[in-house]
UniProtKB/TrEMBL annotation:
Protein name as annotated: 2-hydroxy-3-keto-5-methylthiopentenyl-1-phosphate phosphatase
Any one GO MF annotation of this record: 2-hydroxy-3-keto-5-methylthiopentenyl-1-phosphate phosphatase activity
Catalytic activity: 2-hydroxy-5-methylsulfanyl-3-oxopent-1-enyl phosphate + H2O = 1,2-dihydroxy-5-(methylsulfanyl)pent-1-en-3-one + phosphate
Gene name in the database record: mtnX
Family under the similarity heading: Belongs to the HAD-like hydrolase superfamily. MtnX family.
Length: 217
C-alpha cells in the first residue's frame, strides 16, 4: 500500500488565500458577487475564477507577483512536514487552484516543480487569461477548473491510501474520495454537513502528529 498525500495550497500551506487576496486587491468590484456565487454553488469554480481574473489587466503581472510573494506567510510546521514525508516515504503532491505565477515561486524552496500542480496564467492579452491544464476527466462533471479528483486518479491507484489536506470548497470533491481528511475553515463546515469524517488542524505539526497515530505503514 502506497500512501499518497494531496495537499491544497492557498489557505492550507499558506496562512491566507492568495486568490481571494488578489481578487480583493486587483479585480473589479463585480468580482465580489462572483466570489459569493462560487461559494454558494451558483456557478462553477472554473467559471468564477476565470471571470474574476478576466477583469484584471495583464499589465498588473509584476505588481501582483510582488504583492503575493511578499505578503504570503507559510503555515507553521510545513518545512518539518516536508522532511517527515520524505523520511516516511510518502508521496506528496500539492494540488492548487492557484496560479503558476505565484504558486511556483513561493514553493520553489520546498518542493520540486513536478510535485506542484496548479493553473497556468497567460498575460499575453489585454486581460489575464487562465489555462486549465488539470481540468475534469471523464469521471467528473463539476467543471472544477483545477480538478483535484482527476489529479488524484492520475497519480494514484485504487489500492493506495489517500490523504487529503485542505480548507475550502475547492477541496471538497477530492475529500469525498479520501481515506483520511485533514480539514480547516470552510472544508470543516462541508465535511460536517455531509458527515465526512475529518481531523481538524491548525498547523502542519498537528498533521504530522496525527499521521504518526493514524497511518499504518
Amino acid at each position: 500500500m502506497a500512501i499518497k498525500i494531496f495537499c491544497d495550497f492557498d489557505g492550507t500551506i499558506t496562512e491566507g488565500d492568495n486568490i481571494v487576496t488578489l481578487i480583493k486587491q486587483f479585480a473589479s468590484p463585480s468580482a465580489k458577487v462572483l466570489t459569493s456565487d462560487v461559494l454558494s454553488g451558483k456557478i462553477s469554480i472554473r467559471e468564477g475564477v476565470e471571470k474574476m481574473f478576466s477583469t484584471i489587466p495583464s499589465s498588473k503581472k509584476e505588481e501582483m507577483t510582488k504583492f503575493v510573494t511578499e505578503s504570503t506567510k507559510i503555515r507553521d510546521g510545513f518545512q518539518d512536514f516536508i522532511q517527515f514525508v520524505k523520511q516516511s516515504d510518502y508521496d506528496l503532491k500539492v494540488v492548487s487552484g492557484g496560479l503558476d505565477f505565484f504558486v511556483h515561486p513561493i514553493l520553489a524552496d520546498y518542493l520540486p516543480s513536478s510535485d506542484v500542480l496548479c493553473n497556468r496564467t497567460d498575460f499575453s492579452s489585454e486581460n489575464v487569461i487562465i489555462h486549465w491544464d488539470h481540468s475534469c476527466d471523464e469521471h467528473c462533471s463539476n467543471d472544477c477548473g483545477m480538478c483535484k479528483p482527476s489529479v488524484m486518479r492520475k497519480f494514484s491507484s485504487s489500492d493506495d491510501f489517500i490523504i487529503v489536506i485542505g480548507d475550502s470548497i475547492t477541496d471538497l470533491q477530492i475529500a469525498k474520495e479520501a481515506n483520511l481528511i485533514f480539514a480547516r475553515d470552510f472544508l470543516i463546515e462541508k465535511c460536517e454537513e455531509l458527515s465526512l469524517p475529518y481531523i481538524p488542524f491548525t498547523n502542519f505539526h498537528d498533521i504530522q502528529t496525527a499521521l504518526n497515530k493514524e497511518v499504518l505503514v
